[in-house]
Specification:
453 residues; globular; 5-stranded parallel sheet; 3 domains; Rossmann fold; alpha/beta; 4-stranded antiparallel sheet; 20 strands
Length: 453
């Protein structure tokens, strides 16, 4: 199979025309090819798969992997011997290299993740081509009116996120601007690390055809749109990163009068799925495998919530993701989706991250706290727990050798500044005695809003 973008796009369209059975056959063939490839080129997988049969096309036959397991064996995990953890870390330490080719051939993206363990992910060109090819499936929902609306705005896409690092959304946008100038000219990243009024003014000037970003941030913008301060008319709104509820999707739809298609993906598999008008995520199963499983990694029947979900990326060969425990609870739809898509449909129970709301100033996106404290010197891990309407309990794990008192003073000052910028006043900040904690299921939520009684 060729790896050119055009050929992959043709295959993606053909997969959809040929139907469910053909897509399932394509998935099995690609999985078998990936297993053979990693056995030949990855010392880690060669060791992990040593007792398996020669030919494997059933994902359930494979051992489960995770971020913790793979990152611990980084240099043995990758299939290119020139890719090492030391080299990747040196690359991502330089913010000027965001979107540039690592070793002249790969994109690199980082993530802190819900497990609290920083991820370093290397993506090959085929993976990026698949991302573009199957990404067009979501845009097909625009219809004639939506397409004309998008065309009237030059197809411009606004990505509302936190710049300044190698995070997937930022790195991908920079990559496409460099590698595909025609696409790059209509992509622009808007920083959430600024006062909301400034962000609103920038978006008004840009007037995008498509608006994408973390759900909680887009909900803030929806309220600005309803208030008349934000005056944009996108044809498509794509919230991601957090669990979308019917209420949140309705708010975005009514505020922007646009098609809203929530996205569910991860840095490990950026093309995992796309949202439909029925509120389901359709898995691009010609290039990805999604397995809802229980706590023992056994299959969960359709219609029942899983304990976690195992994901296999069938495109990225340099750093293979196979039966990877993503940590989210999902439900697989047991019947065909009314939207008409032939692809499997899931709903996501996990990754919920609500707005932090306070008695004064309204709501603040959890993403703002994360991007602020990720850069704070001496902070190894943090967790903010809203224990009362105007109280934030701050759990800190400081880096080895850091002065704990100095780190706390810095963190407190930065949080206070952020609250002040968003006109949130009279909030008590408490330094917790306990360290950041995982939930019983092993997930790590850095921001925990107040639970309503």
């Amino acid at each position: 199979m060729g790896d050119s973008h055009r050929e992959i796009a043709r295959e993606a369209r053909r997969d959809m025309r040929e139907g469910r059975q053909a897509i399932a056959a394509r998935q099995r063939a690609r999985l078998a090819g990936m297993v053979a490839y990693v056995r030949a080129r990855s010392p880690y997988y060669r060791e992990l798969y040593q007792d398996l049969p020669d030919d494997v096309d059933d994902p359930a036959s494979l051992p489960v992997t995770s971020k913790k397991l793979l990152m611990a064996r980084f240099d043995d995990w990758v299939t290119d011997r020139e890719v090492t953890r030391e080299r990747v870390q040196e690359f991502v330490a330089d913010p000027d290299l965001v979107g540039h080719r690592f070793l002249g051939r790969y994109m690199v993206a980082t993530t802190s993740g819900t497990s609290g363990l920083r991820g370093l992910f290397v993506l090959d060109e085929r993976s990026m081509a698949v991302h573009t090819a199957v990404g067009s499936r979501a845009s097909g929902a625009l219809g004639v009116g939506g397409a004309l609306r998008a065309l009237a705005r030059g197809g411009r896409t606004a990505i509302v996120t936190a710049p300044g690092g190698h995070f997937s959304t930022v790195a991908s946008a920079a990559w496409f601007r460099r590698e595909r100038p025609m696409m790059g000219r209509i992509l622009r990243v808007f920083s959430i690390n600024q006062p909301l009024a400034d962000l609103v003014a920038e978006l008004n000037r840009y007037n995008p055809a498509s608006l994408t970003g973390f759900l909680s941030m887009l909900m803030l913008l929806a309220r600005e749109q309803e208030a008349g301060r934000l005056r944009i008319h996108p044809a498509m709104v794509i919230p991601g990163g957090e669990t979308a509820t019917p209420e949140s999707l309705e708010l975005l739809t009514s505020a922007f009068r646009a098609k809203v298609r929530a996205a569910y993906a991860a840095t490990e598999c950026g093309f995992l799925s796309y949202g439909c008008g029925q509120g389901w995520y359709h898995v691009n199963s010609d290039w990805a495998v999604v397995e809802p499983v229980d706590a023992d990694h056994q299959p969960v029947p359709p219609g029942e919530p899983s304990h976690t979900v195992l994901v296999s990326n069938l495109a990225n060969r340099v750093q293979p993701i196979l039966r990877y425990d993503l940590g989210d609870s999902v439900v697989l739809r047991p019947d065909p989706c009314p939207c008409g898509s032939i692809l499997p449909a899931i709903r996501v129970q996990g990754r919920a991250a609500d707005l932090l709301t306070f008695p004064t100033g309204g709501g603040i996106s959890p993403m703002l706290f994360g991007t602020l404290l990720d850069r704070a010197p001496g902070v190894e891990r943090f967790q903010l727990v809203q224990t009362a309407p105007a109280t934030l309990r701050v759990r800190l794990q400081t880096a080895n050798g850091a002065d704990a008192d100095r780190v706390w003073q810095t963190v407190r000052a930065q949080i206070t500044h952020l609250l002040t910028e968003h006109k949130v006043t009279d909030v008590t900040l408490e330094l917790a005695d306990e360290a950041p904690q995982q939930s019983p299921g092993g997930k790590f939520r850095r921001i925990i809003p107040l639970v309503s009684p």
